[in-house]
Write the structure tokens for this entry.
Amino acid sequence: MKRVCLLIIAIAHFSGLLARSETYPSVKTVEYKLKNGLHVIIYQDKTSPIVNVGVMYHVGSKNERADRTGFAHLFEHLLFNGTKNIPEGELEYYLREAGGYSNANTSADRTYYYTILPSNQLNLGLWIESERMLHPVMSERVIAREKEVVKEESRQRYDLTPLGRVPEKMQALDHENYSYRWPVIGSMDHLDAASTDDFKEFFSKYYVPNNACLVLTGDVDIAEAKKYIKAYFDRIPKGKPVIQPPYIAGRSVNRIVRDSVRGIKDPHIVISYRAVPETHKDAVVLDFINSHLTFTGENPLSNISKERAGILKVSSSKELYEMAGNMWFRSSFKDSLNYESVVESIDSVLNNLANKGLDQKRLSQLKHSYESGYTDMFYDMGFLADMLAISYLQWGTTQRVNNLIPSVKAITNEDIKRVSRRYFVSGERNILLIYPKK
């Protein structure tokens, strides 16, 4: 779900001079709000002459109407087309000439646009993002064209793979009373049925400065940046307050749903345990457990298919959102087996975690991997900007970034056992079974 302009400058590796605590790297940001509510985050790193200019909006597919899904994702594409002051197709030209590129991504909870440029082109990045916010072009012709782009993306990503629609079937089961039940890409029928006024109304409600944050990371002159931020963004009108929809749970869990699709040889199972939102204190432990279950090389889930004939590859994933969360386990299995055999095998792994946790060697191995990965983040200005914006919009503070490594290093074996006992409960799960359609 990304739109990429031509990359002119090669950015092999970002590096930065970080303010350091005794043990872990950390960032010190400059933060303030404009009068229209736009929150500004600046992190200065003068090591490389590169700057990341990003704007994250607190809007995703969960903010859509049930009969008008796919709007947030469509806007991810639409806002690259042009504005009142950037002729259609010229945005890529401006960036190419400046030696930079732009990209975007959409999730259920947020939409992020960013531009990476040589630091002497900071003003260009600020101007482009202010233009996206203030002067987008939303003509019927442009919207119609982007609808076709999204339809093709939907076909390529989901319809050409027999199991491509399985995740949205599981989402619908997990969150039947809430807007997490539909996929981020949305319904093509809904996009076709929507009017230009529908899109304009959605934009005017959510793509406003008081529902966004502007984040600059890299080689930034802070005083100069503040001056141009004021010039480009302060004039944008404040929107009405945006209230995120409160979570409404579905029916009681512990359901088994059967479905069928063409194009598969073997039955497929998805087991979903009700978990927590990504802002919950236990989310970091669930993430850690998921890493243990999926870590490259030997892991308990990969051993299932080796030890139990007829069970194919088993995988897990954390499906944690701002308002709710689940842990998924997926596997295909031979039709000579009943699905209960797969469930029992996965239960055995999860029960072992609940009773014994991890040995010290495995605990240390995973913590070292996390520490290495998170440390790299501090030297990648693009990724760091993304994390700072997410931290502010969903956790309410950018300082969460500085607590990522300590929070993982603090995980104990008792935490592993406690969280496993709490969330991997048979009465707190749904099962989706997909069989070959004859």
Q: What stands out?
A: The two ends are 33 Å apart (CA to CA). Residues 1-22 have pLDDT under 50 and may be disordered. The CA atoms of residues 108 and 294 lie 24 Å apart.
